[in-house]
Amino acid sequence: MANPTQIYSRDTKWRKGVIRTLVSELFLHGRLTTTLTRAKELRRHAEKLITKAKNPTLANRRIAASFLRTIVNNESKKDVLKILFEEIAPSYMNRNGGYTRIYKLVSRAGDNAPMAIIELVKGEKVKTSKMEKTSKDNDTKISTPKTSKSKKDAKVTK
C-alpha cells in the first residue's frame, strides 16, 4: 500500500475530508461500498476510533468528536458520536481489534477501479434488562402492569 500521506494523489485537505466523511458514514450505516484503496485507508482510522471509544473518557470523546463529521441519523435522531460511544464500542468490549471486514468486488465499469465493501463486524449485542436499568436508578422500581379482566373474560369465568 502507498504511503498514507500521498494516497489518492490529492492535497491534504481533500484526503482528510474524504476519510472523515467515510468514517462517519461507516459508523452511521455500518457498511459502505467504495474503492479498495479508500476502504483500506478507512479501516485504519475507523479501528483507531473504535478502540478509543471503548474507553469512554472525556479526552477520547473529544478526540473522536474532532475527527468525525456531525451527521445525524434520520431514523433514530442520534449523531455519529453518540452511535459510536453508546452502540458500536460497547459491542466490541471483548474484542481486541479487527472491527471491520473488507470484501473485494468486481472492478468499476467506468474506470476499472477495484471496488470493495467495508463493513463493521457484528459484535456482541449489549442487552440491558429492566432490572439493570432500575438498579441504576436507585429510587425507581419496576411496576408490573395490572391485568384486568375484560367483560368477556369475566362472563366466561362465572
Automatic annotation (TrEMBL):
<dbReference type="InterPro" id="IPR036373">
    <property type="entry name" value="Ribosomal_bL17_sf"/>
</dbReference>
<protein>
    <recommendedName>
        <fullName>Large ribosomal subunit protein bL17</fullName>
    </recommendedName>
</protein>
<dbReference type="GO" id="GO:0003735">
    <property type="term" value="F:structural constituent of ribosome"/>
</dbReference>
<keyword id="KW-0689">Ribosomal protein</keyword>
<dbReference type="InterPro" id="IPR047859">
    <property type="entry name" value="Ribosomal_bL17_CS"/>
</dbReference>
<comment type="subunit">
    <text>Part of the 50S ribosomal subunit. Contacts protein L32.</text>
</comment>
<dbReference type="GO" id="GO:0006412">
    <property type="term" value="P:translation"/>
</dbReference>
<dbReference type="InterPro" id="IPR000456">
    <property type="entry name" value="Ribosomal_bL17"/>
</dbReference>
<dbReference type="GO" id="GO:0022625">
    <property type="term" value="C:cytosolic large ribosomal subunit"/>
</dbReference>
<dbReference type="Pfam" id="PF01196">
    <property type="entry name" value="Ribosomal_L17"/>
</dbReference>
<keyword id="KW-0687">Ribonucleoprotein</keyword>
<feature type="region of interest" description="Disordered">
    <location>
        <begin position="126"/>
        <end position="158"/>
    </location>
</feature>
<feature type="compositionally biased region" description="Basic and acidic residues">
    <location>
        <begin position="126"/>
        <end position="140"/>
    </location>
</feature>
<comment type="similarity">
    <text>Belongs to the bacterial ribosomal protein bL17 family.</text>
</comment>
